[in-house]
Design a protein that fits this description.
The chain has about 170 residues and is an all-alpha fold. It is built from ten helices and no strands. The N and C termini lie far apart (about 50 Å).
Length: about 170
């Protein structure tokens, strides 16, 4: 099924005329993703052997445009944000160390369906906030706290974000 969708995208003249003009490779990729999602938006929920969806994989893109791709995927397939990988990690767990500008991240969190993921624990009991603290991702820690990240949810080892912030001295310069 996937190859048929991609093949129909690539052979459709109306798409190829717009897709490969003088836009940047990043914009071409975003346009291709948009076209693919228009053909079959369920593709955003398909999981590989590790349980990763295209949405999870999009977090590993260059931070300069990963949020644009992620927002597009969420817009076309909002149910994709609810899919976790094989370790119980949601899209916010995967965004640790991937948001480089606070203002871009704050716009990203305006998507209301994300709020249900903010305090979601993975298999090890880590919330995205705990993972952000462990990874010393100050931008994500601030963003998650500003949108209701709970500092006191304990992981399986009994640690919570509040204690880890003190222990790691993440805010010390």
């Amino acid at each position: 099924m996937t190859s048929l969708v991609v093949q129909s995208l690539l052979t459709h003249d109306e798409y190829s005329d717009h897709l490969f003009d003088k836009t940047s490779p990043e914009q071409q990729m975003i346009m291709m993703i948009h076209l693919l999602l228009e053909k079959d938006n369920d593709v955003a929920c398909w999981r590989n052997a590790s349980g990763l969806t295209p949405l999870h994989k999009a977090t590993s893109l260059n931070p300069a445009y990963n949020l644009d791709v992620i927002k597009l995927m969420i817009k076309c397939c909002p149910q994709s944000i609810e899919v976790c990988d094989n370790f119980g990690k949601n899209i916010l767990h995967h965004l640790i160390n991937r948001i480089v500008f606070h203002h871009k991240g704050s716009h990203f969190f305006e998507h209301t369906r994300l709020h249900g993921l903010i305090n979601q624990q993975d298999e090890q009991g880590n919330t995205p906030l705990v993972m952000a603290v462990i990874s010393k991702d100050v931008i994500m820690v601030d963003l998650l706290k500003s949108v209701g990240g709970n500092l006191f949810i304990k992981n399986n080892q009994g640690h919570n974000a509040a204690t880890l912030i003190q222990q790691t001295e993440i805010y010390k310069v």
